[in-house]
Structure formats: structure tokens, C-alpha cells
Amino acid sequence: MLRLPCFTYLAPKSLRQALQWKKDAGPEGMYVAGGTDLYPNMKRRHQEPKTVISLAGVRALGRPAGRRAGGPAGEGLVLGTGVTLTQIVEHRKIRKHYPVVARAAELISTPLLRNMGTLGGNLCLDTRCTYYNQSHEWRKAIDFCMKKDGAICWVAPSSPRCWAVQSSDLAPVMVALNAAFLLVGPDGEHVVPAGAFYQNDGIAYLAKQPDEVLAEVRLPALDGWDATYHKLRRRGSFDFPVLGVAAWVRWDGGAVADARIVLGGVASYPQAVPEAAAAVRGSRLEADAIEAAAAAAFRPSKPMDNTDFPLAWRKEMTRVYVRRALEELAGRRER
């Protein structure tokens, strides 16, 4: 049985208090929200904080999902990052105006873990790898890996960087929507686009300082766009994605005025594919435009030996899932 190491648990009631306690704890302190990622990692000794600072009691982070951003729903919504995934799935405004967000949240893990896991926790999910997400003794037997305690990335032994993969379901959706994230730290707050929040490095995968808190997610205004998310995983009941496809299009009449296609589960960050988006701009999402976009997404998709299924098959599924996502958007437009 894997057991948690000893640590000090702190439960601040305000964001200011949480930031101060993290400053006091220094590098040996870590924030925790729902704990569905951090606590299993602590059991495997991936992270070993001496102080764990819970954000569960911070009211500023747990505001109801769908709080209005200064006006009607058409001007965008602000989500507190402490809301649970279940709250997102069940929230009326999100299901009505941002169904892609509810759908992605609904595909995460199991109902029990969605009751615990939070929006912020999933967006900040640790990158995953076959050689990393193992017990301490298993990793010790291979002399560990670059991501924790070792010097070699076993996915690509000659590589100077870690290739652990980003496995959040909500991250590619937020990048496709061009959502904005509010970060709050001891030196103040600032807003970053979702696409700039993630970095293509399995170790330094977030453009966020360790003492900063992801406080809000700001969803864009509703101005003629539609989006969907498709997920490939071994077990349909629950599992991390080995491929996620978020497709976003903005319609102008019957034509696509703009588009974004973002892949999850194939790199250390949600990978936008501008060539695929360019293939459908100006089209009506006819079959040939969809095939061109699927082919364009296939080329830069380079899954590595860091998760489930054979590499060649996973790469081919990029073409299939991009096609399915765009066909869904086309079909909804026709109805």
C-alpha cells in the first residue's frame, strides 16, 4: 500500500492568507485544491512538500460557476477555479452557453473524483508519463527519470528535455476558446491567455510561479462561435486522454470566419495546429475542407512513447478525431 508522507496541513480562509502561508513555507510548500492529483503523486513521492496549503476554504476561488463578467451572458462568464468539476457539469449557464466546457469536464475521470476535483486543479494538472507515474520503487529500479530524481528522459534518452505529456481535458478546450486566466501572487495579479499559460516542457509545463494561484478563468463572449471536444482513451468509463481534440469555429453566415484546432495528449502542452485551422477558414465545413484540416493536424502530431497505445495508431487517430470534431460542428450548423 502506498502511504502519504508526513506533512503539515494548513487551511487558509482567504487568498491573502494562502499567499502569506505559502511565502512562509517557501519551496517546501505546495497548494492543493481537490487533491485528486497531488495526493496520489505524494504517495508515489513525485512531489514531497513539507507543508500543504489547502485552497478548498478560500471563498474567492469557490464562487459559483458562471458568475457574470460585468454584463449578460453574451459578454462572457467568469469561473472561480475552486468550483468542482461536477458543479461545472451541472451548472445551467455553462451547459446552455458553453456546453463544450461542461462536456470536457464530464469526460474527466469518475463521478466521485469529479465531486472532489476542481477546475483549477485540472487546468494545472501535472504532466504524465509511463516512466514517471509509477511507484517510487519502480522508478528506482530504472534509476528514475529526468522529471524526478534522475537525469535521463526514458522516452527520448538523448533528449535534453522531459517529454511527459499534458493530459488535462479542459486545457485544450480553454486554449481553443482563447479563454483568459487570472493569476494572483504576492506581487499582485495579472491575466494571461490560456495559450500562453502552458509550455512545451514536461517539467516546466506552466508559465506560472510556484507561489501564484490560478484564481479565475474568463470565458469569451458569445459572438457566433461554436466548439466541441472529442477524447480518445482506453476505457470509456474513466481514463486520461491519449488524444484530445478541441475544435472552435466562428461562423459568419454560413461560412467559417475563424477557427482554432487544439490537440491534447500528444505533447507537453495543448498543441494548437494553425495549419488545420487555416484549412477550414472561408469554407462551409464541406467534406474536402474537413479532410484538408484533418491532414494538416496529422502532420505535426508526434505522440511519444509516454502513454497508452502504439504510436503510429495514436498519430492516425489525430486525423480521425479532428475529422469527427469538425463534422459534428458542420452537422450542428445545418440543423
Task: Using brief descriptors, characterize the structure shown.
alpha+beta; Uridine Diphospho-n-acetylenolpyruvylglucosamine Reductase, domain 2; 335 residues
Count the DSSP helices: 13
What top-tier CATH class of the largest domain fits best? Alpha Beta
Fold-level CATH name of the largest domain: Uridine Diphospho-n-acetylenolpyruvylglucosamine Reductase, domain 3
Q: Label the CATH architecture of the largest domain.
A: 2-Layer Sandwich
Percent strand: 15-25%
Give the % helix: 25-40%
Question: What's the rounded overall pLDDT mean?
Answer: 94
What is the N-to-C succession of helices and strands? EHEHEEEHHHHHHHEEHEEEEEHHH
Helix vs. strand class: alpha+beta
Tally of extended strands? Answer: 12
Largest sheet descriptor: 5 strands, antiparallel
The domain count comes to: 3
**Rough outline:** globular
What is the spatial order of strands in the main beta sheet?
4-5-8-6-7
In short:
The protein has helices at 15-25, 38-43, 85-90, 92-97, 99-106, 111-116, 119-123, 136-141, 170-177, 194-197, 274-280, 287-298, 311-334, and strands at 8-10, 29-32, 51-54, 67-68, 77-80, 180-185, 188-193, 213-219, 225-232, 243-252, 255-264, 271-272. With 335 residues, it is α+β, with helices and mostly antiparallel strands.
